[in-house]
Amino acid sequence: MSANSLLLSLALAALASAAPAQDVTVVKCGTLWTGRGEQPKTDVVLLIEDGKIKQIGADIEVPWNANVIDASRHFVMPAWVLAHCSGGLDRENENIPMTPYLTVMDSLEPAHPFFEVARRAGIGVLHVLPGNTCQVGGRGVLLKPYGQTPEEMAFVEKAAMKVSLFSGRGSRSAHLLALEKGFQDALDHRKELQRQRKEWEEDKANGATTEAEFDVEAKLDPLKKPLLDMLDGKIPAYIYVHDANDVPTALSLLEKYPLKAVLVLGPRCYKAAALLERWSRRNPGKLRLVLDPELEFTEKDPVTGDETVVCPAKVYWDKGLPFALTSAEVGGRSSGNPALALPWWQVGTCVRYGIPEDDAIAAFTEIPAKILNRGDRVGRIAVGMDATIQVLKAPPMEPESEVDMLLVEGQVVYDRSKDPRVKALTGTSETR
Amino acid sequence: MRARTLPLVAAATLSLLAASLRTPLLAQERADQPVVVAVGRLHVGDGKVLEDVRVRIEDGKLAAIDPDEGPVPAGVRFVDLRRKTMIPGLVAAAASFGARDSELNLTPDRVAADDFDLYAKQERLLRSGLTTVALVPGEARLMPGQVSVVKLAGEDPARRILSTSSALQVNLEPRSRQVPAVFEPNPVPTDEDPLLPSRRQRGSSRASQIAVLKAAFEEAREAPEGALGGEGPTESRYDLGCLKQALASSLPVRLRAQDAGDLLHGLRLCDELGVRVVLDRPEQAPRLVDRLGRRGIPVVLAVPLRPATPEPGDWSQDEAEDPGLAPDHAAILARAGLPVALVPQSDADLDKLRHVAGAAARYGLPADKALAGITLEAARVLGVDSRVGSLAPGKDADFVILSGAPFDARTRVEEVWVDGRLVHESDVEVQSFALKVGRLLTGDGKDLRDATVVVEDGRVVAAGPWVEAPRGIDVLEFPDAVLVPGFIAPATKLGLHADQGTAIAAGPEVDVATFLDPRDPAFAEALASGVTSLLVTPDSGTPVGARIAAVKTGGREKGFVTRPVAGLRMRAQAGGAQGVAQLVAEIEKARKYVNPPEEKPKEEAKKDEPKPDEKKDAKAGPVDLSGDWTATAEVRSRGQSRTVQIPIEIKQNGTDLDLSVRLPGMPVAFAGKGKVEGDKVTGELQGQIGPMALKMKFEGTYADEKITGALTLTTPRGQQRIEFTAARGKAGPARPTAKAADKKEPAKDEKLEPFRAVFDQGAPLVVTCANRDAVLAAVEAVVTKSKLPLVVQAPARPLVEEPVTLPKGANVGFLLQVSQASYEDEGKTVDVASALAAQGFEVLLYAGVQRGTALLPLHVAWTVSEGFDTRRAMASLTAGAARCYGLEERIGRIAEGCDADFVLFSGDPFDLTSTVRKVWVSGRLCVDHDGATRPSER
After folding, report:
1. pTM
2. Is the ipTM of this complex over 0.85?
């Protein structure tokens, strides 16, 4: 064996050992749109390694072991990011009002059609939380719409706590009092333990106790600890604000407790947009807003009987408040209009009411990614970020636009040509 | 489009003229600008009444109340409500707004304001003058929470909540004794912490309620700051802070107890605890009046009147047993020295608060106390009197503007202000009032000093210097102003949105009024300069032209159209006998349609007449062709062939014929002479379209009651030959009616319908004359022969150079465009308007372009400076125009029976420095340039 061949075999061996570990994918994009403020680029190649985007460019050498996706007649853009939803659960809401100890992980059904619809719609990241009726409903999970078990799907288990100011048919004052008492109760519980620790410290100094250690954190009631985590700002709170009258309440909670809060605004909240804007000016960067799927809100004037249709998103946009859009779950709360389950429809509604297309798309990609603290990973396409992208037949607002492929962290989780439901509907397997 | 652009110079002149008018200052007010409201009477709220004051409002607060003297300070928005009464915004000391009771019996830390929808519209209540309400947290639990006080309007929620915690509600009543059991499940039951059944709540009898209350207050007295009280898990327990406040007398206990027994025991408990008490709707309070009166306990009292909802039973019934609520209770309690706030029995009557308090006044409560009961006293009971309930410097600028005394049933709420902003404005107007003015120009020539005009329901009922205003009617005095009738634009296209040159042609069948919109902004411009009536006319597309509609610029949907056909346009192209004949023919045709002469006998005679056999027998000589004929012909136009009907009129005199032919689609009639020779008919006819002379040759053969032949038309463009077959009888839809003798209703001919207004209502024929001869022909045909009113529109200069003589007593209007009202001739200015007036014409000056309509009064003023008589100029804008259009009983004058359309000028209307102060249309004040703009114009 010559030295050369030895070197070659060494190199081959190195490659052979590296190749199986390295999952390389190349997407040849006809048009690539990387995010807000960028012009679409044509004939670009995306090089994906280990789920991350390694390179973006026109003349990238395609590695021999790469899995090549030919999207040269397609439009490639970041996958949608859904910041708040309650789909894919066996039941959205508990009937006990204060259940901070529950977690969506225990309710998640990986085979739920909701995830299939999400994949078909191009949603790459979802934040599934309990519904809107409990005062404190439990913790949500950040996941991808693909996997056999909840653990396989989850990016972050117990990602955030769900709080709701929606009082249903009861009285609002009683709901708010009960909510705050729940908070107070948890805080009092810890205070009591801290008092006991002080006693223990004194006893220990006096030698009056046999207990070796008194760990407050360990002794915390597991039913109350999740709520304390939220109140301490260790996990974010997603506060559902149903009505404009609940907005001042939500803001007062934000001022009273060191919450890392995201407000999920119901359609009626647009009336308090001025209040939100003032608060946001006083507390820059603290207000994070997610909008309910109902983006066309019809209201009847009780005096004149005139019906008005308001697009809450436009009201916030006019006030300069950034927000994330959401889509409804098919068969869920807002099932009246199935189009509300489609991100492109939601984005289109915003555009129809006068929000620029870039901003409207960002409200379903970049902004929710930031709200979910994943702004550096998803919502845009850039080197170093997750390869969570969608391959569309045409730009998303075009009538013929369809999701052809969805990649989450470089892995193809949806391929329209293999979609059994599309096959059943069209009778053929579509070719790209 | 060309015609729509005014020449630059003209546009500049017009805008200068516009600047001299005081147009409303739309949308120029700043929100933070101080407002000064001048009112005639101001009820402070504590019983005091101030007269003739100015209220200064800054930042939503009353800054000052000063006497109404001296000039209006600069930099403020001045609102003149000097004829009005101002009272504080009303305060209702109890309302529930659908508050829901929780299942817990004691929730003292609940705040009623949390259940109130700050973003809901409260228009119904605001409209009644109610601006502040106390929210009661609930009725069916012993201690449902704290009473909050909120305003019903205002942008900022923080400012709208006057008090989250005004009192601690305690309901000691049979209603609050039905307490449910509560189920409080434990999420993770253990042996130590098992799942328990529903917890019974105490307080199902008066004794147990008193015990529960005592225990709660005792717990609060002992407990440390921030501790929770009550039973059950944390979320069922309550913050004791508010009970501590009550014990410290910083928060009153609001005791709801209707029954005297409950009331007595409630008061005993409160005495024992040492808390401050407010009584909430105590029905049987008069039973304890001595006990209450000694201590001066404030009372919120429901008045047992549900306006328009009579209830069965009577107050005398079982009085010994159950002295229920009676309307004199307020008086009894007030006499005993108790502060009384008045509320209605039901939330549904919150909008009738003034009426409800008035009912208490009828039953003995002094009127000032009744008003205080819904203003200052109510605010005091609620502890918000430092902000609302009275009108004094430093208080919130919440007030109501009334048309009269607060408890007069005829009084209307005209405006409601909250935090210095107008939140409601009434849309009901007064249409009965009297105006006292320094000078009154009646329009028909009278110039009166110190006159009074009385208006009822939009019409003038009396006008003159000796007129007394009836009692009780609003009298508005303007001693230094001049009142003139609302101006009339005698010819305009305003509202049709086509300017001069952009022809909007319409035939007589078009109902012009339906094309006009009362809310057209173009009308507002005219209205602001005092033009209240318009005679709107399109261009005429046919010899019998368009209808002229009389409308009002300030009219709403109702009362917009004064008369749908106020005139009918016609054209006279030719002069002389021919021109007269053409016009007379048109008029007679219409007259026959409108008033068919002696219906039945005539028709029978007609039936007999055209029988051919008889005729032939009767006249052996040459055939008599006299009568109307209708020729049917094939005409090719624009490559298409169509059948047309040509009316032919023949008058036979021996063998000589007078022929008249009208070609459809041509605005001209051909007339001429012809001959009959055997069965040959020939003739030469002439016609005129503007300057174009047309000739027509008539050739035909008469046979079998028909004439077959051809018309050869010679125009400058060439010849056209039309072959026809003519039969006896008139063309058009009028013909079949002659046959259908059975039908009573003649078929409607929309083209002739407008003539009804001419024959029956005195609407004039407005004849556009091509030249001087045509004017003479029109006068001859319309005035002399047909005895109809006439308005002519013609080139004026030929008439000035060669004057005409009008028949004696004739009232002929002459529409003179302001641009033609004078001309230069050999270095001299010739005053056309005066020259025409001297000939007997009623000169009607019109602007001719849309924008000019608004500026018409100024254009007419220019003719005055060119020498036109002011009286005639005024008549041109008022009574003269009305008379020419047969509308003198409605508009143009200020006289009994006429519409109350007035313009109030600051001085003589022809003094260019005079401004339009106010304009009324049908008694409704439409324009008010006085002082400042009204809030509605913001």
Report:
1. 0.64
2. no
